[in-house]
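Hi R.,

As promised, here are both runs. First protein below:
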Amino acid sequence: VRRLAYSDSLTGLGNRRFIEERLDEALSAHRRDSRPVSLVMADVNGLKAANDRNQSHAEGDVALRAVASALSRATGRAPGSVAGGIGGDEFCAIVEGGLIVAEALAQEFLDLAAEAPYIRGVAVGVASTELVQGPVGREQLLAWADEAQYVAKAAGSVRPVVAGRDEEGQPYERRRWRGSAGAD
């Protein structure tokens, strides 16, 4: 019953509930001992076209399984990291480590996901507790990773985009990046 409650039946990855609980645990450990926690957020490009091609979800399901497998393989090489599907065509990995580890995992995931059929790749954003000093909440870290993923998607980037940087890796200033570090 626990496996069913915490996993996605299509991809076999952890579901959103699993990701949120594991992220809360990792952030609690971060607050205790300052170990960095990072997120890799991904969105599949071209899934709707894959589903619409044959007026079914069969091709899209094959693509989602392939992307999930790529993320699972990449996270399997980073100790303590876990992968999950957080809704539809969005995936996430929690990385026990800083930006260097998370960017390497994200790039490996992108390389592996390039083999997924029927889609036009994956847009990937990365965020980390290393981005600010002080505590970071789950919602804030998820929002940063999601924003970076949208920057990657809008730019058609074929590499991970780190939160607070553009697709070329240059910093950008956003009002919400200022203010108290622990605020969600």
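And here is the second one, sequence first, then its structure tokens:
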Amino acid sequence: LRGYILRRIIFGLFILYVIATLNFLIFQVFAPVDPASTVLDPRLTADAMERMRVLYGLRDPLHIRYLRYLRNMFTWDWGYSFRTMRPVVTDLSWRLMNTVLLLGSAMICVIMVGLPVGILAASKRGTKIDLIAIGAGIFTYGVPTFFIQLLFLLFFSYYIKSIIGFTLFPAAGLVDIPPPKDPIAYMANVAWHMAMPLMTLVIAGFGGWALYTRNILLDALTQDYIVTARAKGLSERTVLYRHALRSSLPPIVTIVAMAIPGIVTGAIITEFIFSWPGIGSWYIGGLQEGDYPVVQAVMFMYATLMIIANIVADLLYAALD
């Protein structure tokens, strides 16, 4: 087991190095971006822009930039943003908290709704409950998330307001302007702003989890050990939860582990629609404006988390099998 873990870690570090190198080559060699002409103030003179290029190290030889880039990536320094002139870590920290708050809450709620619905559908196979669960799962899984979110915006923020005179949920933002000074009132205000994007993410996401759980359980319920458990006189509840569900946990845990990096990198469309100040909208802004230190930092962070999630999933898979 120790040898296996060590090999997985070494292989993961190698993959991370390859990804980091490609991340560098994309912006520095294959599609070089000049931030002085895309991000900096266009009113600057040519001499001032050239000094800015020298200040940011853009005139250094390629191998010097590559070594500095690797040092920044693997020490989680990440340099300075061309747009804000602040360290990338400074801008990342508060945006990361907002993204994890929204996406982490959504993932927990999706799992808490999707898994029980899938288990219920599998246990009631062929009944009306199963058909309703399948229909709801296919519908919510097939409808684009942004369409559900736009419908919620239209209904709760505009249609309801025209009837009762006020909105049930804010249409955008993290908190009111100016924000409440009392900590409890501040948290309540954030939760109020988060309610609508959270509901839309849960509605859009639970169907896939429900269908996946149902299919895995139905496959497990056809196995010989389930027939043996029933022949021994065990109750259907015991057969379902202590035999079928336990044997289905490894693939479910793998899917959960693979979804965790997405919590950190953010839901780009959701953050854009609801003006949620998170990682996703920040990343898109970096792509559009040539702020490649930001883009490289987000891509490297996602790759790191994905590799860690893979290793953790492999270990949990073996422990739960």
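A quick note on the second one: Residues 106 and 198 are 6 Å apart (CA to CA). Let me know what you think.

Best,
J.
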